[in-house]
């Protein structure tokens, strides 16, 4: 090891200080999460493009002719980090632009810290530092409207189950920006930046002679600990008004490379566990909130109906067009007077008026059934309906299968993490849960099945069919509570009051 240091020296260092950045040539940006962020000249060349800012100028053709007669501004700035979550958590209006700057800064802090203490030993150069920082900045460049809803729900539905990822689109967007703006970056740097972005999706993309630890920083495909998570966990918790007891600073301050892998001090085992536990809590309480999912379901239906008219899905084929697509697509549909967009427009109007798809109930899949669980479909619910009730059709029901885990499915993610004892040791090892605490979980995944009625007057029929499905599948009702009678009657009364006799 090039230098040794004690815990007191580490914790006394100012985390916000970057040891190798020359700030005379950097742009200063103040972030409400990390404070002062300094952007280097090369990174600034990417930021100051309309594709990164997504500043749409005079969009051509009919796509937006009925939207704005003036320019519509910003895309990464106009891509909300949490998609439609702001309709439930009003403060969740932060953007991919802020998150990208945050990840850039944390990537910079992480690589500079390793360089300070192990730079000679690890042969970290300015080239390595620059590529890690750029990977952090550009990792989300390929996101579409309303976050993961576009990627995981809309595209598979309208493109016949096609698997498409924002990471792959980020690579295309990077190439497009470099060519379009003649950014002076060598091909080797560009290759490494793109590999660092895609490594969590494709762990085999790295060359055998690479410094593999560099790929653990932005998108860690090895064990899931990366600065991307550090930023969005803290930023999302803050925006939604939730407390966050995960301290990413402690993780960054104590990391060390052993055998080409970023390892963590054994004393921080529970801190790292909080990383995964906090992420799971955010998924349960924010990202997959029952009302958030209801709004997402309605928006996906609206986008699907509008796709034949606006050809939204075709934009993923061409980076030159894709960067023009952002969250303003909702307003485009909503303010259009075109008759062929009426169904989509009506769905968005229902969202605005809080006439949402009605959440009927949910159940958690029993632990012993998780391994062979198959996603529940509307057809499964229809086949369980009571004959004395109104006949349910597939288009009356929406089913959401929510998987919440600690990043490794049914496995414990901490088993794939290497630890070290103290800063003088050069040996890495893994730690079993039961050696730390018997209060830690023994199951690492939840599967929750939720059912929604798209029509208010069918809440009772859908709820009963859902209960019948549970009885038929598991021999018992696994939901915690019955759908409240008050809700069933309320929905029927609302429906009856709107029916014209």
TrEMBL record:
Enumerate the CDD domains for this protein. Answer: HDc
All copies of domain HD, residue ranges: 96-233
InterPro entries listed in its UniProt record: dGTPase-like, HD/PDEase_dom, HD_assoc_2, HD_domain
GO annotation (BP), single = dGTP catabolic process
Please give the GO cellular component terms listed in this UniProt entry: nucleus
Molecular function GO terms recorded: dGTPase activity
One Pfam match, given by its short name, reads HD_assoc_2
Q: What is this protein called?
A: HD domain-containing protein
């Amino acid at each position: 090891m090039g230098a040794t240091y004690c815990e007191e020296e580490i914790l006394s260092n100012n985390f916000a200080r970057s040891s190798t950045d020359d700030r005379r040539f950097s742009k200063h940006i103040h972030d409400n999460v990390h404070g002062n962020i300094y952007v280097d000249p090369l990174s600034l060349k990417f930021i100051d493009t309309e594709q990164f800012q997504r500043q749409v100028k005079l969009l051509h053709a009919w796509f937006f002719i009925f939207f704005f007669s003036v320019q519509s501004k910003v895309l990464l700035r106009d891509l909300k980090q949490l998609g439609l979550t702001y309709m439930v958590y009003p403060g969740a209006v932060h953007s991919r632009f802020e998150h990208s700057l945050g990840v850039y800064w944390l990537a910079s802090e992480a690589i500079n810290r390793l360089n300070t203490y192990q730079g000679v030993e690890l042969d970290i150069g300015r080239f390595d530092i620059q590529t890690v920082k750029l990977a952090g900045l550009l990792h989300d460049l390929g996101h579409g409207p309303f976050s993961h809803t576009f990627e995981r729900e809309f595209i598979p539905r309208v493109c016949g189950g096609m698997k498409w990822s924002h990471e792959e689109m980020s690579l295309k967007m990077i190439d497009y920006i470099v060519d379009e703006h003649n950014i002076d970056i060598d091909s080797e740097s560009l290759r490494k930046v793109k590999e660092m972005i895609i490594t969590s999706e494709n762990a085999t993309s790295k060359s055998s002679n690479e410094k593999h630890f560099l790929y653990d920083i932005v998108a860690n495909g090895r064990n899931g600990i990366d600065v991307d998570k550090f930023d969005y966990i803290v930023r999302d918790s803050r925006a939604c008004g939730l407390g966050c007891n995960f301290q990413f600073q402690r993780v960054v301050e104590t990391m060390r490379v052993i055998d080409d892998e970023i390892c963590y001090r054994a004393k921080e085992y529970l801190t790292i566990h909080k990383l995964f536990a906090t992420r799971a809590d955010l998924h349960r309480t924010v990202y997959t909130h029952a009302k958030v999912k209801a709004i997402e379901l309605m928006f996906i239906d609206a986008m699907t109906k509008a796709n034949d008219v606006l050809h939204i899905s075709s934009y993923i084929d061409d980076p030159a067009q894709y960067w023009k697509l952002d969250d303003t697509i909702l307003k485009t549909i909503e303010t259009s007077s075109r008759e062929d967009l009426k169904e989509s427009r009506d769905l968005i109007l229902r969202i605005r008026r809080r006439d949402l798809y009605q959440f009927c109930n949910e159940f958690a899949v029993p632990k012993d059934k998780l391994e062979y669980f198959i996603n529940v479909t509307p057809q499964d619910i229809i086949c369980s309906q009571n004959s004395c009730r109104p006949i349910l059709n597939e288009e009356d029901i929406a089913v959401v299968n929510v998987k919440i885990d600690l990043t490794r499915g049914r496995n414990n993610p901490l088993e794939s993490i290497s630890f070290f004892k103290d800063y003088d040791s050069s040996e890495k090892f893994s730690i079993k849960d039961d050696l730390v605490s018997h209060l830690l979980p023994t199951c690492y995944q939840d599967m929750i099945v939720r059912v929604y009625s798209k029509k208010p007057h069918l809440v009772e029929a859908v709820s009963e069919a859902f209960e019948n499905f549970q009885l038929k599948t598991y021999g018992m009702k696994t939901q915690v509570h019955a759908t409240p009678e008050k809700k069933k009657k309320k929905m029927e009364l609302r429906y009856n009051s709107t029916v014209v006799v």
